[in-house]
Amino acid sequence: MTAAEPLALSHLPRASCRGVRGIFCDIDDTLTWHGRLVPSAFAALARAHQAGLRVVPVTGRPAGWVDHIARMWPVDGCVGENGGLWFSMEGGVLVRRFLQPPSEREANRERLRALGEQILQRVPGTALASDQPYRELDLAIDFCEDVPALDDAAIDAIVALFHEAGATCKVSSIHVNGWFGFFDKLEGCRRFVRDRYQEDLDGDLSGWIYVGDSANDEPMFRAFPLSIGVANVRRFLPRMLHGPTYITAEPGGAGFAQVIDHLLTSRDPAET
Length: 272
Prior knowledge:
Blueprint: E1 7-8, H1 14-18, E2 22-25, E3 32-33, E4 36-37, H2 39-50, E5 54-57, H3 63-72, E6 78-80, E7 85-90, E8 93-98, H4 102-122, E9 127-128, E10 139-142, H5 152-164, E11 168-171, E12 175-179, H6 185-197, E13 208-212, H7 218-223, E14 227-229, E15 246-247, H8 252-267
Parallel strand pairs: 1-15, 2-5, 2-13, 13-14, 14-15
Antiparallel strand pairs: 3-4, 6-7, 7-8, 9-10, 10-12, 11-12
Helix pairs in contact: 2-8
């Protein structure tokens, strides 16, 4: 069973957009395209932030990236490593929060190091993600970012090895990420909203939109009524039971810019 075909973004009601207070979004192949941040997508983040919306990237990328994004981008904070950590600037100071305590993270890193060696030996063509040294909680196996693209059979083999080891794993557009413990992007966003705003995300799901592109976004697509996939999400629909409700015409960052255009135009009283 695969996810249903999403509706075109134009079907997202204006009335629903007017109730949106915040935006969660993936980064790789949602704000980027062919490995580069799309200028119109970054400008769209800034426009949304300037309009008073809460803007929070949610990514499988590592703590090192999250530190930079939370400090430097026009955002309210960033959730990283598929929900395992969340950083934000508060009162001019970077606040760093983790789902697991330091001792647990250290023990799990040793287990993941050994598992990574096993995966690289058993699945030819794989490599550790180039950003692995900056990770706190997970192991990222590269299947197309800095190595020649592997086929679906290789991706499935990586997933199977994570599962055999008792790890949780998710497939992004570039990596298979695995970790010990039970969390995902949705749980990270719950913790972020509680810590940053002292609010219950589950009581306000319709006040946020989520924009993503791959199978590791499935928990978010399932939870948020206003979930949107950029056009390239179609590649991953066969790997999901729950896809996005809506889809853009353009892929990657260009698609994200379309989402923000639709959202802000719908919220503008002059357009009603």
